[in-house]
Amino acid sequence: QVQLVESGGGLVQAGGSLRLSCAASGRSISSYGMGWFRQAPGKEREQIAGISWSGGNTYYEDSVKGRFTISRDNAKNTVYLQMNSLKPEDTAVYYCAVEVKSYKYDYWGQGTQVTVSS
Q1: What's the rounded Cα separation, in Å, for the pair 50 and 98?
Q2: What are the φ/ψ torsions at residue 60 (nearest 5 degrees)?
Q3: pLDDT of 51-80, one tens digit each?
Q4: Are 29 and 74 in contact (CB under 8 A)?
Q5: CB atoms within 10 A of CB 107
Q6: Which helix (H) or strand (E) holds 7?
Q7: Helix, strand or coil for residue 90?
C-alpha cells in the first residue's frame, strides 16, 4: 500500500510560482509512473502532467505546457510539480497518484489547494 501526501500549495498572485511535492510512503514508487491531477470547483478532475518511472518521459496537458514541469527523485520517493507563470484558471486542488497500470491511476493523496489571485 502506498500513501501519498501532497504539499506546497498556497495563495499566489498571477504570474507567480509554486512547487508542489508528492511524498510517497509505504512502498517505493520508483518503478511506477506518476501523475499530477487537479480539480477546480464544479469541474471534473483532469490530469495535467505525468512522468515515467525513470523520469525519461513526461506528459503535459496543453493548458500547462511550457509553464509546469514534472520531475521526480526516486531516492526520496517524491515527485514534484514546478508551476511557473501561474494564472487564475490554475486555481484548483492538486493531487498526485500512482500509475498502477497503463493510464490507470490509484493511491490518491489528500490534495493541496492552489489559489491564484488576479
Answers
A1: 10
A2: -135, 140
A3: 999 999 999 999 999 999 999 999 999 999
A4: yes
A5: 19
A6: strand 3-7
A7: helix
Q: Which of 51, 69, 61, 50 is nearest to 89 (CA)?
A: 61
Count CA atoms closer than 13 A to 106's CA, side-chain side: 7
Helices (H), the chain: none
Q: Are 108 and 4 in contact (CB under 8 A)?
A: yes
- The cell numbers describing 78, all together, are 517524491
What was the pLDDT predicted at 23? Answer: 98
Q: Find cell 490518491 and name the residue.
A: 108
Q: What b/e sequence results for 61-86 when a residue is b if at least 16 CB atoms lie within 10 Å of its CB, and e otherwise? A: eeebeeebbbebebeebbbbbebeeb
Backbone angles phi, psi at 58, to 5 degrees: -130, 160
d(Cα 105, Cα 34) in Å, to the nearest integer?
8
Cα pseudo-dihedral 109, 46, 118, 11, rounded to 10: 0
Q: Are strands 68-73 and 78-83 parallel, antiparallel or unpaired?
A: antiparallel
